[in-house]
Structures are given as C-alpha cells and as structure tokens.
Amino acid sequence: MKTYLVGGAVRDKLLGRGATEKDWVVVGSTPEEMHRLGFTPVGKDFPVFLHPHTKEEYALARTERKTGHGYSGFSFYCGSEVSLEEDLIRRDLTINAMAEDETGKIIDPYNGQQDLANRILRHVSPAFAEDPVRILRVARFAARYHHLGFRVADETIQLMQMMVDNGEVDHLVAERVWKETERALGEQNPDVFIEVLRNAKALARLFPEIDALFGVPQTALHHPEIDTGVHTLMSLQQAAKLSPSTSVRFATLLHDLGKAKTPPHEWPRHIAHEDRSLPLVKQLCERIAAPKEYKELALMVAQWHTHCHRALELKPATILKVLQSNDAFRRPERFEQFLLCCEADARGRTGFEDRHYPQANFFRAALSAAQNIDITAIQAQNLTGKAFGDAVNQQRLHNLLTLKNE
Known about the structure:
9% strand; 11 strands; Beta Polymerase, domain 2; alpha+beta; 406 residues
C-alpha cells in the first residue's frame, strides 16, 4: 500500500500557488483494508475515503471503462493491482496527472511539468473525449490560469470540437454545467471561459443565446468595438475588476441577450432589446439550473440597465419607478449589485474601460434621498392603505427633485 498526493495540489505547488485542498491516491489497497485502517467511505461511484484525522479525501487507484454517454457513463475497477500510472492516464490534463510520493519526489509519466513550464493545457490521452464535463473544466482552467500565460493546446481544442460534433457534449446535465460555469465566473478572467467554449464550438450548444451575439453589430458611436459578442466579453472583464461576486458577473454576461433577436434590417440600432432579453435570460437560466438569486439579478440588469445609463436625464418619477421596480428599498445590497453590472456594461467598450460612471453614484444618492423620509410625520396624518403609500411617494419624489436640482 502506497499513498501519493495527486492532482491540483501537486500542480499548484509546482506553480508556487497555495493548494486549498489535497487529494490522495492509494495504490495497492482494497476497500476492506481502508475500513480496517479507520477511513470512512464517502464515494458512491468508486471507493473514496476520508482520512480518520485530517478528513482529506483518499481514493483507491482505479481504471475506467466507457459504458454510456455523459459524466456517469463509466464503470470503474479498483483492484489492488492497479498502478499509479494507470490511474493518472485517466485524468483530464497533463498538469493534473502528476503525483508526489512521501519523499517529495514528483511522478510525472505524461510530461505535466513540461506543459506547466510551457504554459500549455493539454489532454493526457484520447480518453479525455469520453467525459463531456472536461470541455467545461478545460475552459475553466483556461480562465483561472490565463493571467499566467496559459493557453489550450491546439490538439485539445480539436478534440473538444470532435466531442461537440459527435454529440457527446449534449449529454451534459444542467447541474454540472451550472457548477462549472459558476466556478469559472469566480476566476480572474471569466471571459476566457466563454472564449474557449466558443473556440471549441461548445458555446453554441451550451449557451446558444450568448453565442448568437457574436457578429451582431452595434452603433460605432457608442460601441467602437462594434460586435455585440465582443462587447459582452469586455463587459464581463470589467465586472471581474469591479466585483468578486459571481452573481454580478453572471448578470453582466447576460445583459444584452436581446440584441441577438434584433431584426437585421434595424441594425446597428437595438431598440427594445431590453424586453427581448427577458425570455432569453429565463430560458438560459432554466436550462442550466441557475439559482433563483442569479436569475433575478440577471433579469433586473437586462431590463433596467439602459435606465441606469440615462440616470442623469431621468425625471424624479422615473427614478422612483426604477428604485421601486428593483425592490431597492428592501434589498439595497442587490441594487448595489445592479449598479456594478451597469458600470461594467458602460466600461465594456473600446476606449471606455477607465471612464468614470457618475450614474451609479447618482442612483446611490437617489436611493439614500428616497429613504430619508419622515415616516413619523406621515403616520401622524392617520392615513391608511393607498393614501399612506401616496404620501410616502410624494415625500420621496420631493427629495428626488431636490437632489436633481442640487
């Protein structure tokens, strides 16, 4: 029985990054022996155990055989004779197929260290093509390590394209798509996740609403980058700079979906694209099982972002409508997320990346002014129902008018 540190912990150690989790592979053992040593079984599909003290995961070395489609279409064998090399060859990327023994020696049968040095994300073997989740994982790793100069190997992109062409990607379940997407949105360059999926031809299958934006022109005066898909990725870049929130980044990614539905004869203008975006946002969120809070913010941003851009021109009544429609009084923290998305959209344009966005601060001041009402004085009037609400709104409108005139 031998134990090896494997996967991401080895990779990140060699990159000089701190490893948050440690995974171990056990060679030459059996489930019965692991039980005797006090390990707790947790794996459903194959034997994975928790260490009795550290609670880190220890998996028996295994081989796999493709038996069906998708992530779960495998059978596993975990005999004590399975070697470390046999276990590592079933992993996704060479940089994830390295191990370290108890002396600190690196076992690297598939040249992961060389690919680390060359900043290459390359599949280990043709078995990569048997698991469609790996398309999403490679795109996520590309987003994570882009700032270090990593790129996906051409032959790996070609293999991912083949997986799309042969329909393997269509067997991805919604929960796995969402899990990988959410993790990718949390990386330093989430826009690279979308770019890699597009290069692999997977974006059109997984996120057709986003893929449809590429090639759709916008007015050059306001969008020097012209292409709506390019603008979307630029906005996502800005969202990543403005906020670590994956909700903000997700909503920014979906904010302009309706522009893909603008009739071509109306190009490059996109009148009413906000309304056209809403069913597309709902459709996408439902298909990938996005959580409710992500969907709600995405719908808010899609519907109201142009109102935010025009904040300094709006009448007090319209400003109040925006605040009320977005539940800003009860959920100011979500309204703040909305403002960050709008700022990311405004900055996600060629030449506008560092432009000041006073509209956000104006709406912050507007919310504060509309909250600053004398509720006691209104209650003293013994008003009820609609009359009470009207009195509150009148005071809010008065405060907003004062703000506008300052």
